[in-house]
Design a protein that fits this description.
The complex is a heterodimer of chains A (224) and B (113). Chain A is 76% helix and 2% strand. With 224 residues, chain A is mainly alpha-helical. The termini of chain A are far apart. Chain B is built from 3 helices and no strands. The chains are: A mainly alpha (224), B mainly alpha (113). Chains A and B meet through α2, α4, α5 and α7 of A and α1, α2 and α3 of B.
């Protein structure tokens, strides 16, 4: 890729730092750094997922009863929205590789907008849950023998989706920043590492949701 | 040569097919969630999620195209997730419902009670 000699005007665009031998090495190091960070993110969600596993295995009936009441339609639409945003993100990286900067900027903007749509629908869902009184500690009005299991389910639900929503929020900021930089001509076929690395982060946020969707919305739909 | 782009152009075929496959899998997992599969329901749901994750990691994140180091980092993430689950499970899987041991022995904290 960048092993060929560079034109002087390209050197500035590469943002090549002195510790790297080649632009390619620099780009690979940046991507590696993001992968290492994402590995720690797996563990960040891992603790909550272990709590989920324990709760579901210990109280299967109460768990299924609570999970059945989640808003599966909003959850499914949001899954489609996030998967589509990953598609536009991957397409944006593809366009950046080919030096199509307007397409890159537009696709990044579309990705950020889909992220906002996801957050909007998530907010609607939280609002409905507040109205239903299933917010543990603040507004929780459920009775019956499984009320305490439902409280634990909803506690995990708000922690998992809340932390995920925080990641979506950070992702929207990063993607929007990349859209502006791309629109202003900040990237080229020789230098688009920030777009690529932001893409990795965005896809990871999508990956987390790919697992949260069946764990939260599809649990208990056909019995405990 | 600087950007010769007129609009978005056509999406790359592999990305488009990946996206369609992902949407198909969402429909499949949603439908199967309502099928009376009993305890296999969660197995089916997580298998489909793993296939979706595999598609995203391979075709969107291009994990298997880049340098080996990225795969090492991704593998380490999963490896340590396994460690987290198995070591945490040593507690939960070995808990007894009934108390064991001799509770009549002095604990040394009786005076402060």
């Amino acid at each position: 890729m960048s092993e060929t000699p560079l034109a002087p005007q390209d050197l500035g665009r590469l943002h090549l730092e002195p510790q790297y031998a080649t632009a390619r090495q620099q780009a690979e190091t940046a991507a590696f750094g993001m992968w290492v960070f994402l590995a720690t993110e797996v563990l960040f969600f891992g603790g909550m997922l272990f709590g989920y596993t324990y709760l579901r295995a210990t109280f299967p009936e109460g768990f299924a009863e609570a999970a059945r009441e989640t808003h599966v339609i909003i959850g499914t639409i949001n899954t489609v929205v996030l998967l589509t945003s990953s598609f536009t993100m991957a397409w944006a990286v593809h366009a950046a590789e080919r030096d199509r900067r307007r397409a890159t900027a537009l696709l990044l903007a579309a990705t950020a907008l889909l992220g906002l749509l996801f957050l909007g629908l998530k907010g609607l869902e939280y609002y409905k849950e507040w109205e239903e009184g299933v917010v543990p500690g603040l507004n929780f009005h459920k009775d019956g023998p499984n009320a305490h299991v439902a409280a634990m389910f909803y506690y995990l639900y708000f922690m998992l989706t809340g932390v995920h929503g925080l990641h979506v929020t950070i992702g929207i900021g990063l993607v929007a920043l990349m859209a502006v930089r791309a629109w202003r001509g900040g990237f080229s076929a020789r230098y688009y590492t920030p777009v690529e690395v932001t893409g990795l982060y965005w896809h990871f946020v999508d990956l987390v949701w790919i697992f949260l969707y069946p764990l939260i919305y599809l649990a208990g739909r056909s019995g405990p | 040569m600087r950007s010769v782009d007129a609009g978005l152009g056509r999406p790359p075929r592999s990305l488009l097919l990946t996206w369609l496959a992902l949407l198909g899998l969402v429909a499949l997992t949603l439908g199967l969630a309502y099928a009376p599969l009993g305890r296999f329901s969660i197995v089916v749901a997580l298998t489909i999620a793993a296939v979706k994750a595999g598609l995203v990691v391979t075709l969107f994140m291009k994990l298997f195209r880049g340098p080996v180091l990225a795969r090492v980092a991704a593998g380490a993430g999963l490896f340590w997730l396994g460690i987290l689950f198995s070591l945490a499970a040593t507690d939960y899987l070995t808990r007894n419902d009934t108390a064991t041991g001799n509770f009549s022995l002095p604990t040394g904290r009786e005076e402060s009670r």
